[in-house]
From TrEMBL:
<protein>
    <recommendedName>
        <fullName>Aminomethyltransferase folate-binding domain-containing protein</fullName>
    </recommendedName>
</protein>
<dbReference type="InterPro" id="IPR027266">
    <property type="entry name" value="TrmE/GcvT-like"/>
</dbReference>
Length: 282
C-alpha cells in the first residue's frame, strides 16, 4: 500500500567518491590487467548498456515490490511470497538478495584505518594478513564480539572497502572518525548473488572470474558512468556460501534498479532476507 511504502526507507541518489569511481582496484581473471593494477573506468570494455533494453527502467524498491516483495520496517525485502522456495533457489540454482540496510558499506582511508579495525575488535591475525594484501585483493576479518561477526575487507588504492554487519560498522565508524571513514549506506546498494549457478550467470553478464579468484578479489565495471564493484565474499556462513562463494555487488544507487533487472533477466531469482538466513545458517 502507499502508506506502507512511504514508511520504508527511500535511498537518495548519489555516487561513489571520485577516488573509488576513477581509480578502482581491479583483479581480473585473464586479460592484460594483473590483480592489483589500477584501472580507470573509462578503459574497461564491459558496459551494462549493451545488455539493458531501453524499455526497462525503474527504482529498485519499486521493481522489488512489483515482484511481490514483503519489506521489513527498514525496507529490507523479507521475501517474495515464499521464503522456502527462495531458499531452494539459492541451494539449487542462483538467487540475488538485496542486503542493503541489514549490512553496511564503509570506506576507511588514511593512516588510522588499521587502528580503527583493531580498536573495533578485529582479530590481530586477520589484520596482519590484511596488511600484506595489494589493491584488488581482500579478506574476511573476524571481530571479537561473541557473535561470530565477520566483515569483508577489500583493499583499494588508499583505503579499504568494508562490507560489515550493522553493529560492527557502527563501531568502526566511531573508532575511525569522520575524517577517516565514509558511510556509503545512503549512496550504494549491496546485492549478493549465491548458488551453484551464480558463476555462470555472472559470466553471462560479463562479470567473469570473480568467484573463481581468491576470496576478497574485486573488480569494477560500469553502467551509465557509474561504478559497480563486484567482489568475492566469504562473510556469510552455510554450505551454499562455503561451497560456491558469494558474489557481492556494490552498486551506485542511481543505477541499482537497472543492474537488478540485468541480473534477474539473466536467471538470478529474487530472494529475501528470510531465505538468506535459512541458507546461511552455520
Amino acid at each position: 500500500s502507499s502508506s506502507s511504502s512511504s514508511s520504508r526507507r527511500r535511498r537518495r541518489r548519489a555516487s561513489f567518491s571520485n577516488d573509488i569511481r576513477r581509480s578502482a582496484a581491479v583483479a581480473s581473471a585473464g586479460g592484460d590487467d594483473a590483480p592489483g593494477e589500477v584501472v580507470d573506468l573509462d578503459d574497461l570494455d564491459f558496459d551494462l548498456d549493451d545488455l539493458m533494453p531501453d524499455t526497462i527502467m525503474g527504482d529498485l524498491e519499486d521493481l522489488q515490490e512489483e515482484l511481490g516483495a514483503e519489506f521489513d520496517d527498514d525496507g529490507v525485502p523479507l521475501n517474495y511470497g515464499d521464503a522456502a522456495l527462495e531458499a531452494r533457489a539459492m541451494r539449487e540454482r542462483c538467487g540475488v538478495v538485496d542486503r542493503t540496510g541489514a549490512w553496511k558499506l564503509l570506506r576507511l582511508g588514511g593512516p588510522n584505518a588499521i587502528d580503527a579495525l583493531i580498536a573495533s575488535g578485529a582479530a590481530a591475525k586477520d589484520v596482519d594478513a590484511l596488511k600484506t594484501l595489494a589493491p584488488g585483493q581482500g579478506a574476511a576479518v573476524s571481530f571479537d564480539r561473541g557473535d561470530g561477526s565477520r566483515a569483508m575487507c577489500h583493499v583499494q588504492d588508499g583505503g579499504v572497502l568494508i562490507i560489515a554487519p550493522t553493529s560492527v560498522a557502527t563501531t568502526l565508524l566511531a573508532a575511525a572518525g569522520p575524517d577517516a571513514a565514509m558511510d556509503l549506506a545512503e549512496q550504494c546498494v549491496l546485492l549478493s548473488i549465491l548458488g551453484p549457478k551464480a558463476s555462470d550467470m555472472l559470466s553471462d553478464v560479463g562479470i567473469v572470474g570473480v568467484l573463481g579468484m581468491p576470496p576478497g578479489t574485486h573488480a569494477v565495471f560500469g553502467y551509465d558512468d557509474r561504478p559497480v564493484v563486484a567482489a568475492h565474499g566469504t562473510e556469510l556462513g552455510g554450505e551454499v556460501a562455503r561451497t560456491h562463494g558469494v558474489a557481492n555487488l556494490v552498486v551506485d544507487e542511481g543505477v541499482a534498479g537497472m543492474v537488478w533487472n540485468v541480473i534477474v533477466r539473466k536467471g538470478a531469482e529474487p530472494c529475501g532476507s528470510q531465505a538468506l538466513a535459512e541458507v546461511t545458517k552455520s
